[in-house]
Amino acid sequence: MKRKIILLSILLFSANIIWSQSFNYLPLSKNKQVVSHSYLTLSYLEEFEQAEWVAYELSKERVGGAYRRSNDFRADPKVSSGSAELSDYKGFGYDRGHLAPAADMKFDETAMTECFFMSNMSPQDPSFNRGIWKNLEAQVREWAIQNEHLYIVTGPILDSSLTASIGSNKVVIPNFYYKVILDYTTPEVKGIAFVLPNEKGVNQLTNYVVTIDHVESLTGIDFFPELPDDLEQLLESRKDISRWSFIPLSISNTKRASNSAQCLGKASSTGIRCLNRTKIDNGYCHVHQAQVSGVTTPTVKKKATASRCTATTKAGGRCKRNTQNANRKCWQHQ
Fold first, then answer.
1. Could you list the active site residues?
2. pLDDT category, 210, cuts 50, 70, 90?
3. For position 5, what pLDDT does the model report?
4. Hey, what's the torsion of the CAs at 156, 162, 166, 167, to 10 degrees?
5. Which of 132, 142, 163, 334 is 20 to 30 A removed from 65 (C-alpha atoms)?
């Protein structure tokens, strides 16, 4: 035990030396298409039409800036193969989910506008993007304040099994997202990672904590390769939430607070997914409740069409009453 403590102390001392120098915290890129902006760097995978990772730094001083969302979504001119476009997301029911969040970029006008490049977006379910993912982003900002400086790498988990896509550029829809965080400041150098499904989250953030090694096995990405090997192995193999202060999430009113999502039903005439949004728990809008598995819709008999009575009045004229009777005579002339 004493030997392990001494080894850890040496590793942390080494980390402090490296920290005083410039630290290249970027992961390795699968296809070498690394795009560097002023305040964020990303690795773009053309076959999925999105970044495999986006990396940036977040310090205590950068949290809580005054710059508002620019909302200037646009293609990234630095992506040589051409990035996704704003039109790819229209009409499909998915959010343009930020990988590096806008709320982390409020410290600088350039940082804010850069995070609205479409290369920083990924198709996210609205209930995920506006729920558990947003909560995780807020948690990371709290940690930046507490720990003074963090390195953050985030992205979708992409592989060849993914086939669903949106838009003319075929932006692939991921099933999972990850976030990897490194606190590389002494006296407590530490790391933590998360993997979350692209759906409404109903658990505390601690339920989604994994080791960095686990994220590497899912993505094939080598995180923080510039760390000393022994320190990298130690940080990436540990799953210790006791080193991080979590904000408890209120999830008791999940149903009440849920956001609407795109209906899972399909139009009977075209077979195309319904564009209506719904908050109904089964995921289908009121029009497509009959498509819910196990649900039968009662048959409603159509009312007969009313027509003018064919009988003749005592005055010799045709009766003016309408009737639904089969013999086309009103009640008075039966």
1. 98
2. very high
3. 42
4. 100
5. 132
